[in-house]
Amino acid sequence: MRRFCVAVTLLVTACASSQSIAAGAQRADLLGKLCGDTASLGDAGRILTSLAADGSRDDRLWAAPIARAVIDRKLRCDASGAVLVSGEKTLDVLTQAPRMPTEPSRSPLLSLKNRGLFETAEAALALRTAPDVAGRAAALHTLERRAASLPEKLFEAAAEQESDAELKAQMIAVAQAAALNSADPLKRIAALKQISATPDRRALTKVSALLGDPAYAANPAFKRAVDDAVTTIGRGIAIGDVLATLYNGLSFASILFMAAIGLAVIFGLMGVINLAQGELIMIGAYVTWLVQEGLRHFAPMLLDYYLIIAIPVAFLVTAAIGIALEAILLRHLYRRPLMSLLATWAVSLFLINLVRVTFGTQNLNFVTPFYVTGGVPVIGDFIFTWNRMFAIVFAVVTLALTWGVMRLTPLGLNIRAVMQNRTMAGCIGIPVRRVDMLAFGLGSGLAGLAGLALSPIYSVNPQMGQNFVIDSFMVVVLGGVGTIVGTVVAALGIGQINVLIEPLWGAVAAKVIVLLMIIAFLQWRPEGLFVIKGRRK
Amino acid sequence: MKALTSDRPFLALLAVVLAVAVLLGISMVSPFGISAYLANAIGQFAAFAVLALALDLVWGYLGILSLGHGLFFGIGGYVVAMHLLKHSSEVTGKVPDFMQFMGWSTYPFYWAGLGFFPYALLFAAAVTLLISGVFGYVSFRSRVGGVYFAIITQALVYVAMLLMFRNDTGFGGNNGMTGFSVLFGWSIGSSGVVIAMAAGSVLVLAVTLLGCRMLLGSRFGMLMIATRDDEVRLRTLGYETLRLKLAVWCLSALIAALAGMLYVPQVGIVNPRLLAPELSLEIAVWVAIGGRGHLIGAVIGAVLVNALKFWLSAAAPDLWPFILSGLIVLVVLVFPNGLVDLAKWKLAWPMGAKRLASETPELR
Predict the structure, then answer these.
(1) What is the DSSP code string of A358-400?
(2) Rounded distance, CA B145 to CA B66, Å?
(3) Which GO terms describe its cellular component (chain B) (predicted)?
(4) Of the candidates A73, A77, A85, which has an alpha carbon nearest to the alpha carbon of residue A103?
(5) Whose CA, among A89, A336, B28, B102, lies 20 to 30 Å from B236?
């Protein structure tokens, strides 16, 4: 056993020393070329580049400063080799030991052509060895333009090593682009296959550029590969666009739903048009911001979770404001819905200016927690973004909870009874006054939650509420007063129509068309999609 | 009904309005009297009062709340601005700045003939009638009423604002139209013309007041109030309320457009802010504060709120929104019929608001 161990140790030592001997010889050869004439300097530049592609890690680290040094004329050749001047220190290139250059010494001067070679070499080496992402990204940017002349292995190896996802994707893209223009048709066909595996518009631009390539007409196999790639990418983009439209529509619908659901409860219950609903949304967003700032001061490690911690706070604060509003103002106005409209407008005016005076008019800054950042590229140009997903999930949860409260709790039962027939509900002993108050609180609290859900997506300022009022009223009117189902269906419909029309004719046209459709729809069903049966007249 | 039968307050108001007109007339021809600045303010208040009258006609006497009357006001304003620009450029020979900005050297076709004032007047009336007629017809036919109607009108004016914010429509885009220089050949900035415009606006207000008064005193006015109070009964009795509502709605839109035509030359600018939902809501606030269902209330509300705004938004800009909202809440809670309740000298606190039982029932 011991003999075996010794043998292995000997073998390993032998291998290691022979490798280092080879590397040493190579390095000495390279050094000779560096100190040689113009032609051998050019060779040296190419060797440096190839070292970046397939040299060992040691070689790369050794070579990295040399290219830069030659460009800056910090390399001095003398009788016993060369010295690298870096700052105050001077190191022997081969032994890495500090020594002064012996006279006579000279710095190799680069010709214009060689200078380009060395710049490429330097960038190639930096791509493999630079410790920071920014350095590697800059190197990639330099290399991008001459990608076709560089060894393919360089980008593949760099991409394999790369830790930053975005930079890695860029490296792969550059490698693919380089392979597409390589001289070997088989390589080009392979690259086409690889590119069409991730179909997006950038890939399409790259591939369709090949339609004018001479090889497209000359080589039938290549032509077929290009045609296939174009078809595949086109299909991928189409699927991606459909999915993106649906996803955007869904997320817009969920925002509309969030803004409208509280309104639907209040409007449906009391026939009170709450024009302050938008401002309650705004206050929900401001409360979220306050929670974030509070966490920043008192519990910074929880900062990322402020969106979740703020949920009960936003709900309770806006619900309290709603209840106060109901108790002070609106309960006097139940028989006069049009006056309650003006009163709530006054409240909205008051709240806007209160917030403006307290916080100023500028947009608030929100931390973007990790769970609402970025997204997953799915297909084509469709990216499944987490902030939209957050809004959608939030809306679904809110919908479920609201539905639960309205259908499964005694409060919900009472609210529905009062909605159908206020007087009769009072007669059978339902505390109508308290139900009103709690329902108003519920509706307002839902608005606060909407504000919370919007804060990672929209800009939050005192004016933000006004953008939602008309949209959310449209949802409520279209859906039918006070029905959760109606609100959901109307939000989905309006959201999708908006998203479908906007890219074609713009946001204004989308608003006009939605409004005209609602007016036309009310011709057919004056009370909206879903009507609660009851004596409301 | 009381407001209709007792003539004294109405005549008093009319006398005040005419007195203001005469005062303005005097200061126009004599070197003494009101400054152009004050006259301009009075003229703007008069335009707003006409606008409030238009809304009171449909809201107070027909029970239909429109939160989109700014749309008709805006139509009048835009058409008169187009007229003034066309008129000016016939004198100077240049197209207005915003068109040069868009790179246009000639007017779009729909500007044709607007330099001729009677045609501009007819054009404004036609556009107003077309829009109010179509919208009113589809809404009243399907019996959209109450809060639904209010919301849809608000959406309508909002959409109009969005359209006007576009730069490529030929109406000045988000900057609007300004730089009017000539009115019927006179320089628009001279104090004589400013005072004349103010006097004209006050006279138009007086005429509108009288006209509305006569309309409401007629059989038609009775039918309007009957529609407001119980439309179903009126229909059952065999009256066609659709045509009646449509007629009043279109008339109200025309008056609002007229107010816009008075307003824009006096402020010297028209832009999409005229179509902002807030302005349309504010018109309803003027009427509610003054007294819905009273012609006097509409005039008093418009003049009072705007005079306050005129004074406070210069003296204490931060305070004005708070005062306005407080005023609205106070009036809504304490004076169910607006400030005309003050005449009864009995404050009704919120709990006992029923004592001042609302004279103009809400339609739902």
Answers:
(1) HH-SSPPP----GGGS-EEEEETTEEEEHHHHHHHHHHHHHHH
(2) 10
(3) plasma membrane
(4) A77
(5) A336
Distances in whole angstroms, Cα of residue A45 to Cα of each of A41, A69, A178, B236, B241: 6, 12, 20, 100, 93
Domain ranges, ordered by start, for chain B: 8-344
Q: Which range among A315-324, A440-449, B233-242 shows the weakest confidence by mean pLDDT? A: B233-242
Average pLDDT (B105-118) is: 76
Q: ipTM score of the complex? A: 0.85
pLDDT at A14: 46
Could you report the per-residue pLDDT of A451-495, keeping only the tens digit for each?
888 888 888 888 888 878 888 888 888 887 767 888 888 889 888
Interface of B with A in 257-286 (CB under 8 A): 277-278, 281, 284-285
Report the percent of chain A where pLDDT is more than 90: 8
How many alpha carbons lie under 13 Å from residue A27 in its C-beta half-sphere?
23
Show residues of chain A in contact with B336, CB under 8 Å. 336, 339
DSSP result, B219-285: HHHHHHHHHHHHHHHHHHTT--HHHHHHHHHHHHHHHHHHHHHHHHHHHTEE-GGGG-HHHHHHHHH
pTM of the model: 0.74
What region, left, alpha or beta, does residue B184 occupy, with left being phi > 0 and alpha being psi -120 to 50 degrees?
left
- Tell me if A526 and B65 make a contact (CB, 8 A cut-off): no
Structure-token pair, residue A90: 């001077």
- Which 8-state DSSP code applies to residue A529? S
Among residues B8, B10, B1, the alpha carbon closest in space to that of B212 is found at B10
Cβ separation B138–A352 shorter than 8 A: no
> Would you mind telling me the total number of residues written for chain A in this entry?
537
Q: At what angle do helices A57-71 and A2-34 cross, to 10 degrees?
A: 20
Q: Which helix (H) or strand (E) holds A449?
A: helix A432-454
pLDDT of residue A148: 65
Residues from chain B that touch A473, judged by Cβ atoms under 8 A, are 151, 154-155
Mutate to test the interface with A, among B149, B152, B287 (most CBs of A within 10 A): B152
Q: CB atoms < 10 A from the CB of B292, how many?
A: 28
> Does residue A16 register a pLDDT over 60?
no
Task: Tell if the CB–CB gap between A346 and B325 is shorter than 8 Å.
Answer: yes
Give the Cα separation of A527 and A425 in Å (integer): 22
What pLDDT sits at residue B32?
63
Q: What is the DSSP letter of A23?
A: H
**Considering only CA atoms, which of B194, B204, B171, B174 is closest in space to residue B83?**
B171
How many CA atoms are closer than 13 Å to the CA of A114, on its beta-carbon side?
22
Highest mean pLDDT among A155-169, B77-91, B205-219: B205-219
